[in-house]
Design the sequence.
C-alpha cells in the first residue's frame, strides 16, 4: 500500500523505520528536486541540515545523494545544525533553499523533513502543496512538475567537491561562524558583557549544542551548561522547553544564583526561558517583553505579527506606539510572511517561536535566548520585575491552552456546532467579534478572548483562553466546554 506523505504545519514527520524510511525520504527529496528544477533554480543548489536524532547522518546523506543525482549542487552542513542556522546558510550560499531533517520537539521515535525555500523561512502552503503533488506523481510513476528526473541509481557514496565526478558536487560546509557573526550584529553583546550576568544553558541534547555557550561565553557571561551531548533519546523526555520539562534547569538557576536559564528544543528553533527566581517565562509573557524592549530601549518602530492563538498584550503595546498588528493562522510560515512583506519588527507565536527585523523569517531559539540576556542587561532587572513594569502600564492578561480529547463522532458533532457558534456574551461580557481565520475565535468587550481549534489529525480540540483575571479565565473555559458539550 502506498504511504500518503503530507506536509503539516511545519513539514512532514513520521516514526523512524515505520513511516520515516530511507525510501520515503529519498522519494520526498526527489519531489523537492523536481520543484526546484521546475522553478529554474537547480543551479543555485540546496543546503542540507540535520539534528541529533537516530540515523540523522545517514538520512542527510541520502537526501544529498538524491539532489546530486538530479544535478543539483549540495551544501551539506557538518554535524548537527539548528534549523535557523540551516536556514541562514541559504543566504550564505545564495542557495535555492534548504532541507532540514528534524522532528523538532517531537518524541524520540520521530524524525521529519522540512523544506525551507530561498527566502530562508518556512515553506508556504502553495509550495508544500506542489511538493505533495510531486510526491503523489512519483509514487504513481508519473512525470512531475513538467520536468523529467534522472532515474535513481540506488545506493552510492556521498559526492564531495574534491571528487567532482559530475557537473555538480556535494560540499561539506559548517555555517557556525557565519551565523554567529550575523546573530552578533542583532544583539548588544557589549551590554551583556558589562552586566556581569550568570546563566545556565540547556540545549536539551539537541542541535543547538554549542551556540549559546559560545556567543555568551565570548561576551563574558559566566556559564553552566547541562544536557550538552548527543542523546537521541533526549534523556528519556521530550526536547520541548516548557515549564513542565525544565525542572532541572529551574533548580540549577536557583541553586547557582543565575540571572537566567536558557533552553532550546531539539532543533533550536524554539526557546524556553527561566528567570532568576526559577520561574518559567511563557512565550506569551516573553513576546510582549521583547516588543517593549525593542520599542523603548532599541528605539525601533514597526508592526508586530502574531498568530490567532498568541497574546493580545502585544496589541496593547502596539496601540500605544501607533503600530499595526498582523494576525495570522497558527504556523510560523505565516509569521515569516508578515516579517517579509509587512516590515514587522517582531513576529512570534505562543508555542515558543520568534524572529525580529534584520534576521531571517524563521523562528530562532538561539536569538530569543540572546535577546533575553540583552533585556536583563539593559534594563538592570529580572524578567519578572520587567513584567511587573509592563503589567503596571498595560494591564495583565492570563493565558492558558487546554487540549481536550474527544471521540471521532464527538469531534464531528462539535465541528457542526462551531459553524453557527456565535453566543451574544461569554462570562458576562458581550462578544464583539468572531474570527474564523484559523478555528473559531470570539473577542469580548473587555479584551478577553477564546479560540477553539480542532486538530487536523486527531479527535482533539485546543481551547485557548486569554482573560483579565484567573477567575475569568476559568469561567470562560468552563462556559465554552458547557456550550459545546466538550468534556
Sequence:
Amino acid at each position: 500500500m502506498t504511504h500518503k506523505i503530507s506536509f503539516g504545519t511545519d513539514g512532514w514527520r513520521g516514526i523512524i523505520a515505520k513511516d520515516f524510511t530511507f525510501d520515503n525520504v529519498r522519494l520526498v527529496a526527489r519531489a523537492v528536486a523536481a520543484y526546484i528544477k521546475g522553478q529554474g533554480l537547480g543551479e543555485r543548489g540546496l543546503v542540507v541540515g540535520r539534528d541529533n536524532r537516530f540515523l540523522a547522518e545517514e538520512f542527510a546523506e541520502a537526501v544529498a545523494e538524491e539532489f546530486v543525482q538530479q544535478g543539483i549542487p549540495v551544501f551539506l552542513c557538518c554535524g548537527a545544525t539548528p534549523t535557523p542556522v540551516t536556514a541562514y546558510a541559504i543566504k550564505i550560499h545564495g542557495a535555492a533553499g534548504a532541507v532540514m531533517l528534524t522532528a523538532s520537539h517531537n518524541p524520540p521515535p520521530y524524525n521529519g523533513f522540512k523544506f525551507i525555500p530561498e527566502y530562508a523561512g518556512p515553506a508556504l502552503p502553495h509550495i508544500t502543496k506542489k511538493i505533495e503533488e510531486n510526491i503523489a506523481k512519483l509514487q504513481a510513476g508519473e512525470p512531475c512538475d513538467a520536468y523529467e528526473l534522472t532515474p535513481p541509481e540506488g545506493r552510492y557514496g556521498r559526492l564531495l567537491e574534491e571528487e567532482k565526478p559530475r557537473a555538480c558536487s556535494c560540499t561539506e560546509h559548517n555555517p557556525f561562524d557565519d551565523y554567529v557573526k550575523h546573530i552578533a550584529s542583532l544583539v548588544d553583546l557589549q551590554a551583556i558583557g558589562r552586566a556581569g550576568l550568570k546563566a545556565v544553558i540547556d540545549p536539551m541534547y539537541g542541535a543547538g549544542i554549542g551556540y549559546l555557550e559560545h556567543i555568551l561565553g565570548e561576551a563574558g557571561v559566566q556559564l553552566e551548561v547541562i544536557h550538552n551531548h548527543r542523546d537521541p533519546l533526549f534523556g528519556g523526555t521530550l526536547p520541548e522547553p516548557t515549564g513542565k520539562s525544565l525542572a532541572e534547569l529551574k533548580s540549577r538557576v536557583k541553586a547557582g544564583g543565575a540571572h537566567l536559564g536558557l533552553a532550546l528544543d531539539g532543533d533550536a528553533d524554539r526557546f524556553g526561558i527561566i528567570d532568576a527566581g526559577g520561574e518559567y517565562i511563557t512565550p506569551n509573557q516573553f513576546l510582549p517583553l521583547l516588543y517593549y524592549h525593542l520599542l523603548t530601549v532599541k528605539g525601533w518602530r514597526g508592526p508586530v505579527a502574531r498568530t490567532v492563538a498568541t497574546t493580545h498584550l502585544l496589541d496593547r503595546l502596539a496601540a500605544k506606539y501607533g503600530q499595526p498588528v498582523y494576525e495570522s493562522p497558527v504556523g510560523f510560515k505565516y509569521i515569516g510572511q508578515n516579517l517579509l512583506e509587512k516590515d514587522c519588527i517582531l513576529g512570534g507565536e505562543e508555542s515558543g517561536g520568534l524572529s525580529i527585523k534584520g534576521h531571517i523569517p524563521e523562528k530562532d531559539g538561539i536569538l530569543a535566548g540572546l535577546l533575553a540576556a540583552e533585556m536583563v542587561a539593559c534594563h538592570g532587572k529580572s524578567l519578572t520585575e520587567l513584567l511587573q513594569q509592563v503589567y503596571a502600564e498595560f494591564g495583565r492578561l492570563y493565558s492558558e491552552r487546554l487540549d481536550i480529547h474527544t471521540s471521532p463522532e464527538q469531534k464531528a458533532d462539535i465541528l457542526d456546532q462551531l459553524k453557527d457558534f456565535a453566543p451574544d456574551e461569554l462570562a458576562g461580557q458581550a462578544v464583539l467579534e468572531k474570527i474564523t481565520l484559523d478555528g473559531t475565535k470570539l473577542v469580548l468587550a473587555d479584551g478577553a478572548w477564546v479560540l477553539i481549534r480542532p486538530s487536523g489529525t486527531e479527535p482533539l480540540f485546543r481551547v485557548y483562553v486569554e482573560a483579565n483575571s484567573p477567575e475569568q479565565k476559568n469561567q470562560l473555559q468552563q462556559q465554552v466546554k458547557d456550550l459545546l458539550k466538550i468534556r
